[in-house]
Amino acid sequence: MMFSKSIEYAIRAIVYLAINSKHQQHLGVKKIADDLGFPKHFLGKILQNLAKKHLILSVKGPNGGFYLSEEHLDTSLLKLVDAIDGLDFFSSCGLGLHECDDQKPCPIHKEYQIYRGNLYKLLSEKTINDMKTDIENGIAFMDIGAG
Prior knowledge:
- With 147 residues, this protein is mainly alpha-helical.
- It has helices at residues 5-20, 29-36, 40-52, 77-84, 109-125, 128-136, and strands spanning 57-59, 65-67.
- The protein has a domain at 5-84 and 127-136: Winged helix-like DNA-binding domain superfamily/Winged helix DNA-binding domain (Arc Repressor Mutant, subunit A), CATH 1.10.10.
- 48% of the residues lie in helices and 4% in strands.
């Protein structure tokens, strides 16, 4: 599955917040966008959407910005995917056929079900904190900008 740009930006921005917003420090969309190399307005819409869905926190005003609480670190990647694009991918046909199901499978139906199931499991188990910890411990890499 190729993630949409919105999901890619959301995941990278949340990991950026997890690593850089210590003690509820608010980070502005301009700083986040500049550090990550994302378009400010597009990222702003994504972050506002995530704040509305309570996946991140935001504060308005001159010292405002976005940040995470400890409980947000336990957010699964599946919740992010659901908040941005929904979960239709996990019930749709791999070839885009409308009539594909277990009774009338497309040529890749069984294999695609396994792939989808494994991806669903991965996304439901992997949390923001897992990603943050792996990056901080040098186990994984993600370009999250200057910080």
